[in-house]
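Suppose you are handed a protein chain with no further information: no name, no annotation, nothing but its sequence. What can you learn? This example shows the usual starting point.
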Amino acid sequence: MDAQEMRDAEILAWPEKVLQGHIVSMALSLGWRVYHTYDSRRSVPGFPDLVLVHEQHGVVWRELKRQKGARVSADQQDWLDGLTAAGEDAAIWKPEDVVSGEVLRVLRGR
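A reasonable first move is to predict its three-dimensional structure. Written in C-alpha cells, the prediction is:
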C-alpha cells in the first residue's frame, strides 16, 4: 500500500465528527458561511447536519454519515427530498466524497 492509499484508508475510517470538522475547515477557508446545529437533540428531527452558504456558489445542504454502517433516517431523507424538490442542492456526504474529491469540487463551485 502506497502513501496515498494509506491516507485514503485513514479518511474512509473517519467518524462523522471528524468528517464534519474537515468539511467545515475546508468550507471556511474557501469563503463559505457554515451553520451546523450544536445539539441535534433540540432540533427538528432530520434537519441536515450542515448548511453552507457562499455568495457566488449558492447554498449547499449536507447530511454527513460515516463510511460504513450509517443509515439515513426517514426524517433525514424527507428533509433531503424536500430540499431537492424545492431546487436546493441537498445530499449526503461520506468520507468517500473527500477521497474522490467531490467535497472539494462542490466547495470550489464546480
